[in-house]
Design goal:
binds 3-acetylpyridine adenine dinucleotide; L-2-Hydroxyisocaproate Dehydrogenase, Chain A, domain 2; six-stranded parallel sheet; single chain; 19% strand; three-stranded antiparallel sheet; Rossmann fold; alpha/beta
C-alpha cells in the first residue's frame, strides 16, 4: 500500500514542527508548502536529514507550487500571520482571510478528498471561511483549538494538584478566544470530578477559577514571553493527534472546531465541540448537558464567533 500523503500549507513555526512530528511518527510522505521561496525546500532538506538519525522512512519535500499537494490525504493549514504582543487573534482577520481564499482554492483544485485541519487564527472564522472557499464537505474540514486549549487546562491542573498529566481529562468548549469555555463539570482527575478532587486536596474554588482564567489567556501568555510569534510545539502536537485519529479511524472524541447545525442550539457555525474523528472525518458532534452558567458562557463565545463571520462577509463579498 502506498504511503499516505500529508500536505502542510504554511511551513513556518507550526508547519516545520508538524513536519518533524509527522515524519517521526511515519504518518506518511510530507509536502511542505509556503509562498516564501526556498524556505519550505530548506526545511524539507534539513528534516530529511533527521531520518537516518531518528530512523524514520518518510519522503519530505518543500514546494511553492500547489500542484505538488495533489492527492494529499490530510492537509494541515497554518498559512497566514501569527499574533504579535498586544494583538488579539481577531486582529489577524483581514490578512488571514485572503490567505484562506488562496489556500481553499489550492485544496479544491488539487486534493478535494483530503481531511483538512485548519490552525490559522482567528480559528473559528478561518476554518469556516476555508470550508466556504474550498467547497469541501463540512465533515472533512475542521479546526484545531480545543485539543490545545484542553491540554493547557490539563497542564495547569496537573501542576496545581501535583499529579500526572496522564490522569487529567480536561474539557474546553466554544470559540478559540478569550471567551472559550473551560468546562469544569466534565473535567476529571482519573474519573474524579475536578471540584471533588479540589476539595480532597484542599484547593479553594477561587484557585480553580484562576486556572480557568489562565487557560483562557494561555496563548497570549506565550505570545508575550516569546516576544515574536506565537506557540507552536503544542499546537502542532494537537493537530497531529487529530490527523492520527482520521488516518487510523480511531473514532476519538476530540474537542474540535466542527460544523454544528442543530446541536447546542446552533445553526451552521464552526465552534469548539466534542467531535468524533475517524475515517469519515468529523463523524459526529456530541451534545453534552451543560449547566446554566456554562450554557450562558457558550452563548457569549458563539456570539463572538458569529460576529467574526459577519466581519468576514463584509470583507469578501463571495462569502455573503
Ligand atoms: P509563522 O511561523 O509565521 O508561519 C506562517 C507561514 O505561513 C509563514 O511561513 C508564511 O510565509 C506562510 N504564508 C503566509 N501567507 C501564505 C499563503 N498565502 N500561502 C501559503 N503560506 C503562506 O506562523 P505560525 O506557524 O507560528 O502560526 C501559523 C498560524 O497559526 C497563525 O495564524 C497563528 O495565529 C495560528 N495559531 C493558531 C493556534 C490555535 O490554537 C488555533 C495556536 C498557535 C498559532
Amino acid at each position: 500500500m502506498a504511503r499516505k500523503k500529508i500536505a502542510l500549507i504554511g511551513s513556518g513555526m507550526i508547519g516545520g514542527t508538524l513536519a518533524h512530528l509527522a515524519a517521526k511518527k511515519e504518518m506518511g510522505d510530507i509536502v511542505l508548502f509556503d509562498i516564501a521561496e526556498g524556505m519550505p525546500q530548506g526545511k524539507a532538506l534539513d528534516l530529511s536529514q533527521c531520518g537516518p538519525i531518528e530512523g524514520f522512512d518518510a519522503k519530505i519535500t518543500g514546494t511553492n507550487d500547489y500542484a505538488d499537494i495533489a492527492g494529499a490525504d490530510v492537509v494541515i493549514v497554518t498559512a497566514g500571520v501569527p499574533r504579535k504582543p498586544g494583538m488579539s487573534r481577531d486582529d489577524l482577520l483581514g490578512i488571514n482571510l485572503s490567505v484562506m481564499k488562496a489556500v481553499g482554492e489550492g485544496i479544491k483544485n488539487n486534493c478535494p478528498d483530503a481531511f483538512v485541519i485548519c490552525i490559522t487564527n482567528p480559528l473559528d472564522a478561518m476554518v469556516w471561511a476555508l470550508r466556504e472557499f474550498s467547497g469541501l464537505p463540512h465533515n472533512k474540514v475542521v479546526g484545531m483549538a480545543g485539543v490545545l486549549d484542553s491540554a493547557r487546562f490539563a497542564t495547569f491542573l496537573a501542576w496545581e494538584f501535583d499529579c500526572s498529566v496522564k490522569d487529567v481529562n480536561a474539557f474546553v468548549l466554544g470559540g478559540h478566544g478569550d471567551t472559550m469555555v473551560p468546562v469544569k463539570s466534565y473535567t476529571t482527575i482519573n474519573g474524579i470530578p475536578v471540584d471533588d478532587y479540589a476539595k480532597i486536596k484542599g484547593v479553594p474554588e477561587s484557585r480553580l477559577d484562576e486556572i480557568v482564567a489562565r487557560t483562557r489567556a494561555g496563548g497570549g501568555e506565550i505570545v508575550k514571553l516569546l516576544g515574536n510569534g506565537s506557540a507552536y510545539y503544542a499546537p502542532a502536537t494537537s493537530a497531529i493527534a487529530m490527523a492520527e485519529a482520521y488516518l487510523g479511524d480511531q473514532k476519538r472524541i476530540l474537542p474540535s472546531a466542527s460544523y454544528v447545525e442543530g446541536k447546542y442550539g446552533l445553526d451552521g457555525l464552526y465552534v469548539g465541540v466534542p467531535t468524533v474523528i475517524g475515517a469519515g472525518g468529523c463523524e459526529d458532534v456530541i451534545e453534552i448537558e451543560l449547566s446554566d452558567e456554562e450554557k450562558a458562557n457558550l452563548k457569549v463565545s458563539t456570539d463572538a464567533v458569529e460576529e467574526l463571520l459577519e466581519a468576514c462577509k463584509g470583507l469578501d463579498s463571495s462569502l455573503a
